[in-house]
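re: ur question from yesterday

yeah so i grabbed the chain u mentioned. its 347 aa long if i counted rite. heres the sequnce exactly as i have it in my notes:
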Amino acid sequence: MINIFLDTQVYKAINFNFFYKDLLRLKRFIDEGLVELFITPITIKEIEDHIKREIQASREYINAIKDNAKILLNYNIYKPIWDRRTINDAEIELLGAFHKFLDDINVNEVAISGTYTNHIFESYFNGRPPFSSKKKNEFPDAYALYSLLELSENKDEILYVVSGDKDLKDFCDDKQNLYYIESLEAVLDFINQQDEVKYQLAQKLFDEQIDTFFESINDTINDENFSFNINVYDVEDVELKEFTVEGVGDFEEEPLVLELEDNKLTVVINVIFNFTIVTSEIDPAMSPYDSEEKMYLYVEYEEKEYTDEIELPVEIEIYIEDYENQDYSIASIKINNDEEYLYTVDE
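ran it thru and got these structure tokens back, copy pasting raw so excuse formatting
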């Protein structure tokens, strides 16, 4: 049995989407009895608080748009966006989805420990993990982590702490029963490693067929139906002029295996892409601005071109006929989870 704890940061990274594909992949391992998932009452409250605060931030953002787009209130299709009930319903639905996830996935709630209270305060005053100079008041994390530590000691088993928070890594480093894993994808890869024979065959297939996978990524990019958006903050008109990956050398690391079945293999790997975008931006030098009305009297635009490189995850889904003979076909390739990329322009 593999004991796993998902930190609040993991749920935040997937935008609190409790139907996210990697969570569903994890659920399959739980249903099969390979994994036991844990959560603390503190983590539950943190997730609920994050959902409420982000919903509130969305409300403020929507209201700010409303002030500059009142004309849209004349159209019925837009009215629900600014209806207070819409936001309230969204909060209720997201919180409900979270608690349904806890029930459906059989998450075990860990009682908060009082055993390590002295250790927690000593760590606080001495600046030891999970406390640090930048995060001095991490008492919720401290109580959650020491509760997990006590659980793992009582079970005399390793508990895998999944988080992108390096303070949690520092905390786990000198704990015999706690092991840090940096992401949801990495923990799925770790679980799949338990099937040693099939995992090695999957890695061998990827290593030996990497040129074919590279060609398939390029074919995907060059397909006339391919669409990928690179947006720039506060710029409405952005055209993707060029988008390429230059060679196998752009594959920086071994793939993470997300699914490892008899007839299906799904891997994800980071790939560096080169791109050129052309933007149409307001030219402040040629666009007079009325500071009282807080608007441009008229607007002139200028085109700018940016060339850069970005590292994006590429998920490759492969149908397997025979692992040993490397008889397979590529079912799909998803770049950046089919989501747009927000590019920040260096001033």
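noticed a couple things. The longest strand covers residues 301-322. also The first helix runs from residue 8 to 13.
anyway ttyl
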